[in-house]
């Protein structure tokens, strides 16, 4: 077996350092891949797989892509989760002595993409890290395309880690071993978010993380960033910095600030709530259209689009900041001319944040600098326009807007207006920017003028009318004479090349001019590149100033977008305060009303933390219960991001977090049934809700048998209503009409239903109006008719329903009333839940001793052994199969068998 060629030895040595990557090995105008890398690339990119003998006695699989189109292929591989190591030639092959030096200059991973073909304009591309350290979880994330870098610390709890991961949605994440080995966290990342997961190095330690950060930011401590004492957070941020240092191998100065944030600054939205409310993507197909973002996003810049998405995922808890945003939106609405003028100007602004990332990275070309200049030239106009406004936020943004006139002037003076994409072919730098360059260009131009006159001069001198002057890269300039005229060639012509029908010649004078022209052009092109890099580096030094102005433009774009939407959709300004009321007059669902071809039916909402904190909503399917509840949640969320809301009037008592339990499905990855998923979500709500929370519950208990489900739903309502720690404002939709009796027992409960009309012609008509009181029936068979079930099934269903209603002439509601009235119930005193005499007279359905029950037993059989076993049962640790067996045994005991 022979030895490998020197080049393959070089390849193998480099590949050993990057075994987890596909190695793009530069060979001339191609990136080549060998062995398994070639086989993977051939399959994933659908390119030809060849083989060559590179030494070693056997042929090696080989595949390659042209360098000029490599970005397209790399983007495809990265989207599929692969890492790509770019190995470049570090010297000019024509000047190399022996084997060309090569090395990896960058590793591209899903979380470190800079290519515009891969990145989405309105979406950040984050690399995240979550590290469990000293019983705390540090969480950090960075977008290297914009320079955004943030860190926080969380209590060690699965749900809290998942909530932040759900909000940020990184493309790639680094996890400490404890978190990576956690099935729930790992499954959520891989199966639901499709994230590429990396392991934190086992020997990575706190001092190393700290040193990496202070070295990067060139500081003596992290006090200035507010995270000096957040050891877990420093571990996470340091893990990111180590990853970037290892993979990027280049300037990271645009990552110049580490933002330390607290999740307590923002409304908490867990993963289920973000999904159920369809904040930025629909549940069905993950599309932007049909989500809240799809409605609110009228931004005209990519930077604004990304910032709006961030705002939606982080509603504010600071009343002052909310009011400042609302004031700004309000002022835009009242200055329509200025609003439209601003939006027109912003349409001319490119993605400054990502342009700056490329500039700092050294990957920006002349067109990128020209795009930056064409964006910055509008800053004076924007600043002047902002002087017309008086709201505190707009005035603050105006003062923060750096005009960057020095940078604009530099690029304007240096870079031609319409530069080429390439950097090594000249045509980049304007005349007058550099004296030496101008002289070289003049020398080349004079030489070309001489060449242009040469053809006419030689025709005159030789009498050869068909003589031509030509040029090619191999032979340079030449004089071409047809064979019929060779006898007229002067003695000073030197034969250079023989063709089929002609001969090519040079003269000493022509060769001298050629050397002058080509030498000047070569020097000119090289100098242009040097000058361009110098200009690019000068711009990169002003990264902080440019980032600040870019952030101002992004926020202006978002505020203008919210104003535009408010005008177009007839939104009102909400009042947000610290009270516990949620009052919405003629509220509408912001998304549904846009999707409908007919007018949306508005509805009122009133919740408070005392006498109306819990609304039980009944009514048939398709009548609008879920839409109504979601619209309340979205209106609250919109108000707290600083947006106007779809209503005639809205007063929002600040909400610390929104919980939703709307629908459920089997979680096959963890072996959990639909009902178990539902109970997990309910448990999460029960454990984390406060009196300042808003809870949306839809059909709790429907995943199990009727009596089990009804019992659980009943108990959940009592628990949320009665516990002082909770007492959250709650909307509870249900088909269990039996639950409506709780309005008589629990002071804070109110019944509402969706109005339905019946007539002979149309049957059931849903009015989509939420009205006080309980629904009298479910109209399930009518809904089935609307769904298109055959008449035979509908007829038989009605027969069965009539039979069952006849058999059960005493409804479960009445049974519970009678049981509650005849049994002794253990009561707890709650002075804030006293039922007034007026309400007692109005209802006249319960005995005086039942005014303030902490709990009402559904079947009043506390002493029965079956009840005791049910109370002792830990349902959260029972498998579905065990549950079936337990229920079977309990049923037998209840029947006395």
Could you characterize the architecture of this molecule?
The protein is α/β, with parallel strands linked by helices. The chain has five domains: 103 residues, DNA repair protein MutS, domain I (MutS, DNA mismatch repair protein, domain I); 139 residues, Nucleotidyltransferase, domain 5, CATH 3.30.420.110; 117 residues, MutS, DNA mismatch repair protein, Chain A, domain 3; 93 residues, Orthogonal Bundle (MutS, DNA mismatch repair protein, Chain A, domain 3); 255 residues, P-loop containing nucleotide triphosphate hydrolases (Rossmann fold). Helix content is 44%, strand content 17%. The chain is built from 32 helices and 27 strands. Strands 13-23-24-25-21-26-27 form a seven-stranded mixed β-sheet, with helices on both faces. Helix 7 packs across helix 8 and helix 15 packs across helix 18. The longest helix is centred in the middle third of the chain and has 33 residues. It is elongated, with a radius of gyration of 36 Å. About 7% of the residues have low confidence.
């Amino acid at each position: 077996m022979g030895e490998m060629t020197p080049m393959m030895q070089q390849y193998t040595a480099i590949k050993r350092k990057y075994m987890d990557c596909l190695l793009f090995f530069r060979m001339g105008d191609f990136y080549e891949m060998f062995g398994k890398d070639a086989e993977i690339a051939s399959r994933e990119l659908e390119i030809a797989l060849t083989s060559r003998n590179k030494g070693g006695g056997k042929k090696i699989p080989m595949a390659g892509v042209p360098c000029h189109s490599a970005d397209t292929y790399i983007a495809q591989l990265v989207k599929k989760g692969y890492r790509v190591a770019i190995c470049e030639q570090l010297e000019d092959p024509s000047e190399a002595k022996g084997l060309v030096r090569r090395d990896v200059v960058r590793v591209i991973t899903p979380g470190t993409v800079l290519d515009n073909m891969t990145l989405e304009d309105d979406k950040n591309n984050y690399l995240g890290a979550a590290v469990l350290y000293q019983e705390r979880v540090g969480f950090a994330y960075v977008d290297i395309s914009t320079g955004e870098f943030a860190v926080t610390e969380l209590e060690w709890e699965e749900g809290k880690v998942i909530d932040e991961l759900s909000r940020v949605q990184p493309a790639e994440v680094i996890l400490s071993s404890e978190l990576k080995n956690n099935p729930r966290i790992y499954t959520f990342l891989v199966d639901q978010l499709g994230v590429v997961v990396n392991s934190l190095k086992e020997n990575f330690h706190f001092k190393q993380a700290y040193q990496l950060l202070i070295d990067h930011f060139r500081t003596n401590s992290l006090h200035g960033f507010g995270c000096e004492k957040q050891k877990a957070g420093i571990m996470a941020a340091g893990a990111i910095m180590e990853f970037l240092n290892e993979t990027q191998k280049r300037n990271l100065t645009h990552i110049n600030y580490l933002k330390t944030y607290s999740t307590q600054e923002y409304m908490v939205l867990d993963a289920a709530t973000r999904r159920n409310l369809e904040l930025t993507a629909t549940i069905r197909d993950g599309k932007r259209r049909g989500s809240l973002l799809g409605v609110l996003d009228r931004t005209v810049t990519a930077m604004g689009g990304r910032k709006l998405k961030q705002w939606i995922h982080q509603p504010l808890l600071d009343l002052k900041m909310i009011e400042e945003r609302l004031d700004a939106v309000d002022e835009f609405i009242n200055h329509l001319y200025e609003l439209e003028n601003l939006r027109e100007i912003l349409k001319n602004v490119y993605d400054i944040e990502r342009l700056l990332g490329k500039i700092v990275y050294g990957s920006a070309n002349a067109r990128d600098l020209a795009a930056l200049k064409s964006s910055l030239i509008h800053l004076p106009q924007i600043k002047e326009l902002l002087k017309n406004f008086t709201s505190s936020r707009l005035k603050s943004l105006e003062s923060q807007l750096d005009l960057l006139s020095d940078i604009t002037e530099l690029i304007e003076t240096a870079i031609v207006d319409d530069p080429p994409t390439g950097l090594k072919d000249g045509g980049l730098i304007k005349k007058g920017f550099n004296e030496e360059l101008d002289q070289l260009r003049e020398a080349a131009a004079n030489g070309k003028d001489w060449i242009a006159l040469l053809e006419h001069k030689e025709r005159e001198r030789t009498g050869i009318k068909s003589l031509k002057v030509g040029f090619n890269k191999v032979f340079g300039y030449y004089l071409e004479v047809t064979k019929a005229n060779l006898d007229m060639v002067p003695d000073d012509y030197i034969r250079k090349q023989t063709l089929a029908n002609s001969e090519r010649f040079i003269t000493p004078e022509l060769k001298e001019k050629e050397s002058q022209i080509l030498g000047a052009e070569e020097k000119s092109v090289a100098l242009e590149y040097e000058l361009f890099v110098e200009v690019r580096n000068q711009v990169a030094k002003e990264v902080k100033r440019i980032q600040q102005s870019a952030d101002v433009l992004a926020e202006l774009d978002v505020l203008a977008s919210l104003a535009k939407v408010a005008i177009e959709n007839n939104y009102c300004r909400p009042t947000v305060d610290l009270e516990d009321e949620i009052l919405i007059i003629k509220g509408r669902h912001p998304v549904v009303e846009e999707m409908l071809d007919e007018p949306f039916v508005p509805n009122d909402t009133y919740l408070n933390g005392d006498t109306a904190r819990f609304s039980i909503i009944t009514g048939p399917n398709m009548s609008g219960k879920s839409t109504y509840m979601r619209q309340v949640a979205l209106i609250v969320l919109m108000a707290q991001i600083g947006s106007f809301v779809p209503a005639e009037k809205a007063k929002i008592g600040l909400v610390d977090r929104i919980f939703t339990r709307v629908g459920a499905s089997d979680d096959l990855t963890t072996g959990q049934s639909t009902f178990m998923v539902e109970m997990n979500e309910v448990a999460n709500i029960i454990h984390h809700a406060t009196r300042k929370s808003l809870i949306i519950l839809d059909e709790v208990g429907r995943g199990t048998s009727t009596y089990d489900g009804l019992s659980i739903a009943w108990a959940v309502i009592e628990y949320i209503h009665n516990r002082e720690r909770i007492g959250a404002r709650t909307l509870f939709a249900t088909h269990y009409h039996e639950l409506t009796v709780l309005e008589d027992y629990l002071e804070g409960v109110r019944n509402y239903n969706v109005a339905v009309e019946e007539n002979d012609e149309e049957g059931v008509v849903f009015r989509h109006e939420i009205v006080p009181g309980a629904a009298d029936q479910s109209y399930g068979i009518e809904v089935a008719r609307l769904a298109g079930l055959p008449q035979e099934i509908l007829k038989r269903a009605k027969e069965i329903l009539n039979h069952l209603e006849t058999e059960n002439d005493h409804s479960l509601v009445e049974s519970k009333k009678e049981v509650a009235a005849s049994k002794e119930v253990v009561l707890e005193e709650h002075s804030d839940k006293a039922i007034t005499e007026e309400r007692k007279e109005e209802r006249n359905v319960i005995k005086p001793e039942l005014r303030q029950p902490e709990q009402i037993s559904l079947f009043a059989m506390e002493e029965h052994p079956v009840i005791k076993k049910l109370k002792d049962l830990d349902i959260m640790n029972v498998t579905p199969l065990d549950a079936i067996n337990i229920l079977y045994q309990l049923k037998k005991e209840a029947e006395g068998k």
